[in-house]
Amino acid sequence: MKWFAVVLSIALAFAGGKWYGAKSIVQGKSDPNRILYWVDPMHPWYKSDKPGIAPDCGMKLVPVHTGEAQYQSREKDIVQISPEKQQLIGVQYGTAEYENSADTIQAAARVTLDETRMTKIQPRVEGWISQVFADFTGKYVKKGDRLLTLYSPDALATEQEYLLALKAQHITHAAMAGMQESTVNLVAAARRRLELWDIPAPQIDEIGRTGKTIDDLTLVSPASGYITERNAFNKQHVTPDTVLYTLADLSTVWVIADVFEYEAAGVRLGQRAAMALDYLPGRTFHGRVNYILPQVDPVTRTLKVRIAFDNPGGALKPDMFGQVTLSTGGARRLMVPRSAVLDSGDRQVVFLDRGNGAFEPRSVKTGQQSGDRIEILSGLSAGVRIVISGNFLIDSESQLKAAMNGMTK
User: Fold this and answer.
1) What do you get for the CA distance between the two ends of the chain, in Å?
2) Where is 71: in which H helix or E strand?
């Protein structure tokens, strides 16, 4: 009887699984590593009872073990991957955890001019420039500093009218008291015309005191700032349309920060901001958001946020680049690594570790992102073990399995 049992076992081995050889007899059908068949890795519905090359793609056939085939038949959404394959594709694990985070937004930024502190200087009278004092771009001028001298026939004629009105006022004051009021009005009108042409009051007083006209009037700066644009040169003819100078006051500056579209909801007016510059390591500047532009940049997908900074000493210079940090407050949130979430646009998926090489795809809803962590609003609970690396290839396995299930229906 013993000899008969041995012969029967050998016969069954050759009849039912001849390509397994003696190894199949030793392992037995309960061995999870026993090879059942080989499949085409690109077309899993192609099966073969022996190793070889796939006829369609020319790739080497992949073995399917007993454990994988048995588990794949349990649940249609569960993906079973052997430890060897997990190591090959670099699967790593993590957990969903609640975190108390002081949320911040990091954004690249550029220093610009405060447009509310810019001044355009134009003459109010036609004439010719005699001499230029503010003679280069970038020069700092204070309010009341001399910019240039200007010869204007129209202004000279008004000066003469002013002197005649003063002389008439003196005569009527001595001889005809009844005409004094009218001469006073003439003097006031002539002086007012000179003032409207931006002739400084000290020069007008000098004309009245000396009784002589001033051929070359001096144009002074109406504000303090740096010259960012100059169009005033000796012997140049100018009109009221000519922009002689543009001044920029850098005591405050604007900083334009590029905030990514998915972080834009955390930005608000009056929000505190801090900025660091590479050329001033260790120094931090503080400001507040004073405007949020109404349009997202279609190329960079960023929202431009304007922040006002005080600029004592002029350390912040236009067109400098820096890094802005916006504080958005803190909250307790369920967070996972950003790499754990596969985002297809209309669906976000996280793979749960079910043990023994089993992975379950779980749809989740994501919230705010903070650095390399992202908030989970629904779909997960704290402490769940998830895949944080290699999930893209696990998803590929899941898609292949879904395709196979669809063809076998």
Assistant:
1) 47
2) helix 66-72
Ranges assigned E (strand) in 278-405: 284-296, 302-310, 321-337, 342-343, 348-355, 358-370, 373-378, 385-389
CA 52, 56, 59, 61 torsion-angle sign: negative
The DSSP secondary structure of 171-207, one letter per residue, reads HHHHS-GGGHHHHHHHHHHHHHHHHHTT--HHHHHHH
Domain boundaries, the chain: 2-75, 88-99+332-408, 115-248
Does domain 115-248 sit in CATH 2.40.50.100? yes
Question: Could you tell me if 373 and 100 are in contact, meaning their C-beta atoms sit under 8 angstroms apart?
Answer: no
Q: What helix, strand, coil percent values describe the chain, rounded to 5? A: 30, 40, 30
Tens of pLDDT, residues 243-302: 999 999 999 999 999 999 888 888 999 999 999 998 888 899 999 999 999 999 999 999
Q: Around Cβ 149, how many Cβ atoms within 10 Å?
A: 19
Q: Which fold has domain 88-99+332-408?
A: 2.40.420
Coil, helix or strand for 143?
coil
Which residue, 122, 345, 337, is CA-closest to 238? 122
Tokens of 359: 């992975």
CA distance 57 to 48: 15
